[in-house]
Fold these 4 entries.
Entry 1:
Amino acid sequence: MDVPILGELETAVLDDLWDHGVSEAKAVHDRLAARGITLNTIQSTLERLHRKDLLDREKVSHAYRYTPRISRAEFRANAMAVAAGDLKSAESAGALAAFIDLVARTDRKRLDDLAALVDAARTRQKKRK
Amino acid sequence: MNVLPAAIVLLAFVSMTVSAAVGVGRERLLRTFEPLSPKARAWWLLGVLSAPLLCSGVLVVLALAHCVGLRATGLPDDCTGFGGVCSFCVFGGADMTLRGWFLMSLALVPVFWGIVRLVRGWWHMRVARLRIRSIAKVRDDGAWSVPGSRAFVLGWVEPVVCVGENLADSLDPSAVEAVTAHEEAHRSSGDTLFRAAAQFVSVAHLPTVARPLLAALDLAVEQACDERASHCVKDRLVVAQALIDTARLQADDHAACWVPASLPERVASLCAPPRLHAAPTWAPAFGITLLGTLAVAVVLNHELHSAFERLSVVFTR
């Protein structure tokens, strides 16, 4: 699934819908009132999220009711998976420094050997103390 | 006449010669750097990686300095004194021949490739950063908590530390501290920018020579951060164990086991006592190359300039 890049307000609105479930623009606006943004801004943000396929909506009376199309965990996992591709390319230009990275294949036996090396060093350290 | 194609072709020629010389003595060089502390080793390796660009640049600039100086002060060019026919050494009006354009473009291909790689990396980094920012939770220490089992630093300017939630949940608190300290060391010492610079200057090297040098530089940079992390958690073995545990976690994440080739070296280094040889950094690393090149440029200035003139005659109509 292609995961769009979200702005700060879009993230906040989506987070709010994940927290509170199906909501109308007015309800979202009330909950995000502390940000000092207008109802119009919230409506256009919801509209944008709907166009990005992240929200479903149904018309009830005169207002739309919005529902997140995917769960928060699903969205985060998908976004991270897509970002991993970009990270790989960024890495090739030195824009990324990773603690452990996906560079060469090795087997679990090798990891066990390394763990044994650390254990041996720890034993030596204890003996010295 | 126009000396631009001659300058660039000579630049490429000197770069390749220096790179070949480095390639021949590579094993010996790496052995010489081995006793150094990782940070010092990284600087020396950057010095070696930039040697072709530095040497060829200095040689070309010094060979042309005489004419540029005369032009800048408004005095007539005396290039004919070098045995050539050049009267407008650097700012010449004659057009380049097709051969000149072709050879110049060929010599510039690695530089264009280096620039393309940098821009591409910057773009992907920017996109990844925007994408991750919308899903990350900012921790108290300013690091971003992200899904998955990876820990990394992202960005050249104002780099940000990202730590995988799976990593933070599964490892011991001391191991998590080690991972975070390692990444923080990358962030505070600007390693992403350092690596990008190393990759860019390595375009002047022959690819077969640059690759092992870059791998050695990567290892040195990682080991330097391992050392700083071990200093932070006050136990080298905690960092070594954190490396292995992280590799195991990532192996579980990706079904197949993927670990960097440098992992055994990093763990072995952490299991041994620290290397205290920390003194030399950038000054001697670049100074030796620069002084050597200056000496060569001064001694061979006349011959170099004549080479420019002869090549310029070939490359201009």
Entry 2:
Amino acid sequence: MKITAPISKPYEVPILAKNGAGEFYCGLVVDEWIKRYDISVWINRRSPLGANLRSFEELGEVTEKAGEFDCPVYLTLNSHYYTDEQASFVLDLAREASLLGVDSFIVGDPGFVRTLSNAGFEGRIIVSTIGSVLSSETARFYGELGARRIILPRQLSIAEVERITRLCPHLEFETFIYNDRCPFLESNCHTLHGLPNQDSFCHVDWIYDFIKDEAEAGESSESWAEHLKHYREWLWASSNCADSYTLTKVPNGTCGLCAIPRFLAAGVSSVKIVGREAPDYRKILCVQTVARVLDKALAGIDEADVKKAAIKLRNDEETCRRGYLCYYRDANPFVAGKARRRAVIEEKL
Amino acid sequence: MEELASIYTTQNHSLASSTQVLEETLLLIDRQRKNIPFEGIYYGNEFCERLLPRAGELETVLEETRKKDLSMVLLVPYLTDSGLERLSPLLDILSGSDCCEVVMNDWGVIRYTRRNFPRIVPVLGRLMSRMMKEVRIKGFLKPGKAPPGALSVLRDCGYSNSDYNELLADNGIGRVELDIPPQGLGVEPAYGVKMSVHIPFAYVCTGRSCMPGSLNLRPQQKFTPFTACRTECMRWTLRLRQRHRPPSAEEQILIQKGNTVYYLEELSLIEDVLTGYEGNGIDRVVVDTNLLS
């Protein structure tokens, strides 16, 4: 199992590789794209400015440096969709990127998966979370279109991940491990991040008015007030607690460290760190954090002990007990038993 | 209509402006209804696996619609593997009936259905029509303001893409469903795909972690994709307002029901769809009353 790390500057590659990254992903936005479509149309799921490489020269530097560490580079082409004209533009970009040494393409639109396959890139396609693979059937669908690997959405339980990997042994799988959680499914979110002077839609501190009558609904407004406090806390955790750090310099990121042993057992190929736009300092600390836990799991240390090590590393047991930073709460040792019981009840229903 | 509007008028005074917009929308739909034949009902849910109907419920609805000489279309959300197992008996029932149209919002559901229930007619649901619906910048997205290259892309959702169209054809999809984005619709499928449009509410975002559905759970159990809920979505509908902004008629109407946030589509854009529905490739309008009931 490798660590897949985000890149937005060529100089980040050797630092992250030396700290444990085994694969890299990046975005590329060339001037011609912005000239044609403006910055309001994104070629991938990050703003054209800030999170992306800005030229083929930069991309070439990234692949060259990554090659020195024998690390593949993946290019994100994961817009929700491309029109015919855009698809032609992006295909040309993919061809150029391939010549520069890009290994595979991260794609969200099944139409473009087909485009790439038809253009000879079959087997070099990674399905983005935008592809919304929630079942083994969807994984097979993309496999038949020419995908090699599937990035599974953050809104799956460990048990659901295990089921998909078990039923699709012919495909590679990648799961999220650190930083950022979408409160909604990102494949089904149609808002823009990065609007000037505005929070992301999901992180706006909304006032909730009740359209339906409380008495009719049977719950009190007090319980709602308490519930919304929890929701805001969970949202805050979803956005990495304002990109903060613990006193021991561990990034406060949404986290799947406790799930690593089960991912390893399930044959997951790589674990992904989110945050192409993050400062290099944060990227390094994230890679170090994940690498320390992954190394223990790879060394064959018992699952419970790997989890203990992860919690100790995070150095904030109270937050871990709460579970709001977890991607996969059913892997959290403080929550797992109860979560599993509820999941079983739900399954029976 | 009286009943629908009254749901709003009994509420918080800040909803007064939304009542007016909604009433106008419903009046418009009512006027257009004279020209649009009412053909049937959409039954089910597009957004939540937990709301898949049981086989008995589906049979009852099928029977009722048959008695009223209406067609019935089943709505199916995105599904996990266990959701697909629960879908199977429903598709079995529909395969043996005259109502075989199923709206699917997941390529896995489409693959599963095509392989196991070939009589079912797949319709590509609106969750698969992935348009940008950032209502907070709708002013920027008007013709004359947004760059033309950007606007034509944002009014589409990939249905102009020939490879995507081939994918639809390969999967037997002859109908796609859409919301009306704030920037207006500019969708022209390359081959003879029919289009349905949902009015008057469009969805903005949805997910498996349900905020209202976690209301009655202990903190450690809240907001996960897998913990059971008490279908709070059936009892609570919330209006989202931006803090520090007084209620105004111009404020975008945003509503959350269960795991999904919706906005009220712009009246003039609904009118465009309704008045031009025979000429713009749209031959079905789905009026969503579920949010108001």
Entry 3:
Amino acid sequence: MYGLLLRALQGYICATFGAQRWVQIMDQNSHRVEGFEPLLSYDLGLFREILARSCKLLGRNSATLLEDMGTFVVTNPALPAPRRLLRFAGNSYGEFLLSLEELPERAKLALYDISLPRIVVKTLGAGEYLLYCKPSQAEVIHLLHGLLRAMADDYGALVFIEFDERPIAGEGDLAQPALLIRMAEAAHAPANPFYLVARP
Amino acid sequence: MTPRLTITPPPAETGRSISLPMVGLGAITKLYLLLDGQGIIQEIGPTLERLFAGRGLRGASVFDHFELRAPDLIHHLEELRVLEGQKLQIVQRNPQGLRFRGTVMAVHHPMGGLFLNLSFGVDIAEMVRRYQLTAGDFAPTDLAMELLYLTEANAAVVSELRAFGQRREEARRQAEEESLTDALTGLRNRRAFNSIITRLCREGSPFALMQIDLDYFKQVNDTLGHAAGDHVLLAVTEALRASMSARDFIARLGGDEFVLLLPGTAGPARLEEIGQQLIAAIRAPIRFADRLCYVSASIGVASVGLGDRSSPSAILAQADEALYAAKEAGRGCIVIKA
């Protein structure tokens, strides 16, 4: 997964802040200048290291950076695949939210040895959901924050998403990073068109 | 009363049948044909309706519109009836030839006959594209969406892998290019030269090897410094390049030592002419800052004829010998060994 994340970070920083910034981040780190390969394996430590350096150089905190990156991943017109693959998972935002629980398996259908974090989506009440990772991982939650907001726009749903750190019923007493999702209106605006077979 | 479809149990299990309203059937399948006792199409699933809009499916014989096989061709309704529960291959009788898989079961219906349930086969992406099908055209339990997802995910992974391969190939080529290039002049280096001369010898191709050594280069370096020396080497490189044809190969072996490989069978007169031109070009004064540098060149040539099986080292030794003779002859000379 960290190959994908590092590549996404690289793409996001190059597109948003310019390739020169990325080169600076990599220089500091004496890492390969050509960047990261999405299909190669890297570890969490390296991802955190690059993320921390990026935040320092760009003067951003990591929550904001990851959130923006999550939005970028599904809205970057140069790379439509992530948004399209996610849209296959549900005909509505509600279906899409529930499908996130299948995300690791859906990813494995495409890449048999990829391991994505398990996401739990609990229904709190009508149109209210609590989303967290198991095991908990703050980076993923921040990334999902931006991604889920952008996907809500894509589906035309009016959704409020809040980051929260709280103990989760049945998951121990420790506070865990989570997202509180409140769907105010499923069809607030027209959804972006989604054709089952991509048009050239 | 709404039309209902009753799925017939075998006679022994009377009482264990289920009955569905026709309109609700779309929740289970959207691709079906209901045939009457004569094989005439009476009802059509909504997605099939879209695919066959305006083709007059309703009221026509199923055999007029479709070719059915399991695996032998099925011509009559009676043949179809005994294949209940088996997998059928169903192809539209039309140049478009949409392909389905299907299965048939006996049902109770006022027009009563056979229920033919279809699903998309391998043409699914093509059908979705052509008829602009949406998620609503598939039953909620249908795995069609997963299949389409998989097709696209697979394409994304493959294109990423291909891009990865290309990036690697480019990096490899660049590394190779760097390993064969002389950093100062951008000419090929000794390693590249070795590989080319080895290939020429292996092929038995005719060529001439010109070994070029600068005269007075050491003086430039000693009196004006290495920057001046480098500048002179670059100027000489330019002079060599200017007089070369695209087929010729030129390398800097190190220091002030250059080699030229001229493919083909140039005679001694022609080689002499080329050598003299090079010497004249190199002899031109080279400006460095506010000083002029004077160097010249001595050239030793080994000429290798067609089918000559000399080894690279023998040819090099021959050129060396010629070069030594040229230096002895007073510099700025060319000596050719045939």
Entry 4:
Amino acid sequence: MSGAADLLRQIHPIFVKPDGKIGSSAFRPSKKDNGVLSVYDGRQMTPVQALTHYTTHLGLQSRGVRVVTQDECEGLNLVVVYDGVPFPAHAGIDFNRLSKSQQQDAADDLRDFAEARGWAAEQP
Amino acid sequence: MQPEPFLTPKLTGGRFKGGGLPLEVMGDFAVLSKLLTAVARQRFLDANPDRTRVKRGFAQGFSLVLTEIRSGSVEASIGCEFPGRLFAEPERLEHLTRSKEAVVGAMRAAFEGRDVSPYLTKKQLGYFAGFGRSLKDGEAIEFRETPEAPPVRFTKELRRKLVSGRGEEFDEKVEWYCGVHELDHERRTCKIKTLDGAKYEDVHFPHKFHETLNDAAHAYPKGTKVRIEAVAAFESDGKFKAVKKLEEVEILDPRDVRLQIRELKLLREGWLDGEDAPPPSPAGLDWLESAFEAGFEYELPLPYVFPTPDGDVQFEWDGGNGSLIVEIDLERKSADWRAKQAGERRRGTFDLSAAEGWAELSDRVRAEQTSGHVQGNEADRKI
């Protein structure tokens, strides 16, 4: 696979306020994620397909899809991993190179990038 | 004469954390006094099977009075006075003491899932329809039959058990955080949907709430929520029946911290990405709500409240040319803060287990607001 990808992040409804504000913790991996934030590889699925897959196939809650790019991640010293597990379009943004405070800053920046773009796909 | 020491209930949680006794609760104690008197009357008759009525002036011969309120949690000392007497009347005091044992014994039996009928009659259980009605979630009144006995916690749930023991419908004060999605102006009823998705229809409202509810219904599509206090009727099995009286309606700021914390309370284990993401702990959220209410200066802009993937909570302020994020460790009651403005980042910590930490947080928000990095939420308040 070639070319820098759009990375599609599902946003849980609890991270979205009525005025559209999104919490930066929506862009931070948990300890149980082993420091890797799950995203969809935008070269393999459109945002609408990713939203349908996440909510219908996986049965998880999402308010919609926001986009960050591989270049933005790399600019923050984050590594993008196209692991294809547990499904082919799965990818991860690896935060493990960063200290805790750097991880917090990187999540804030990813949120700002994604917020500026608006929704790529949204629940009706 | 000094009132005879009789009962020392301890009030814990919620509104009692401030150390004072809310006046609203005084009405509950008035009902408790009536219950104790009614049971004492019965005990007198039980002890005197040859009598069909109690002595003339039996109930007038004593009076239960509040003698002291000790703060910390609130401890209310209730004494027994014998008007016009120099000394306590042993017989009346004895029946009152047996009455206290029966009432607290019934609470203990209900708590332990035992039959309460050896302690109180169905009619006497009816007094619990009034006593404890003002208790809110997380609040309790601890009773002991004797100073040495372990406490039994009288809560909203325990009250419900006792009242439903009569097999009749009962009233309970409810507090809903909800949206108002439909209003019938003719019938003066509304339809509401609570945060957990429960829907209530035909909620009748008095005229004084018409304008507020109308505003809330218009703003429903924008996600506006209200806080409603009402007296509701429940079937004996605890099933909701109807709203009997709407007592308070308050349109909430979208950043109302009580509202946002209640939304976090709905998260369940594994809420995020299908992983084993823990939700913030209910006890931690209760602490955060009361500590925020007590410690954060009310005129400052309110934060957005978000969960973190590891079960903690994040406050965020923005709207200016920067942002302030405070990440709160619910277990340690401490926080890391970070501010960002034009690429410059600053950070620090707060100890939120103490009032000083909340004062420092307030100062930080004020400083960021004064510098134009974050803005107030006045615009949000216009619905």
